[in-house]
Design a protein that fits this description.
This protein is mainly beta and about 120 residues long. The chain has 1 helix and 8 strands. The radius of gyration is 14 Å and the shape is globular. The termini are close together.
């Protein structure tokens, strides 16, 4: 199972297809890019899990969601500067044998996340 993410656009009530997401490994302020991808029609990584159980390691990770570019591409009139540009979520994996699902519910003005199943 490993690590996965899913993004829902709460302004339009749909998956955030096309949103660009970057995954990093993090060590304090130092972050190393693992991969960058655009979400599929279901608001998920088109290649499946970001890490499977065999490759997920205990540690700190960062997901960065390009919220501003996504809503601008959807034709939403955004203030300059927009309230949310990128949403960066730093989270820890304490048990590499468990599934870590990191969903994001987002609008141009708010977001929510949690550890999903």
């Amino acid at each position: 199972m490993g690590l996965s993410t899913h993004v829902l656009d709460t302004m339009h009530g749909c998956p955030a297809a096309g949103m660009v997401v970057a995954l990093y490994t993090a060590d304090g302020e130092q972050a190393t890019l693992v991969k960058r991808f655009a979400l599929n029609a279901d608001g998920r990584n088109p290649d499946g899990p970001l890490y499977d159980n065999a490759s997920l390691r205990v540690g700190t990770y960062r997901l960065v969601f390009d919220v501003q570019a996504y809503f601008a591409a959807r034709g939403v009139a955004l203030a300059e500067p927009n309230f949310l540009n990128r949403v960066a979520l730093d989270f820890g994996v304490a048990h590499a044998d468990q599934h870590y699902h990191v969903p994001l519910l987002v609008s141009p003005w708010s977001y929510s996340t949690y550890r999903g199943s």
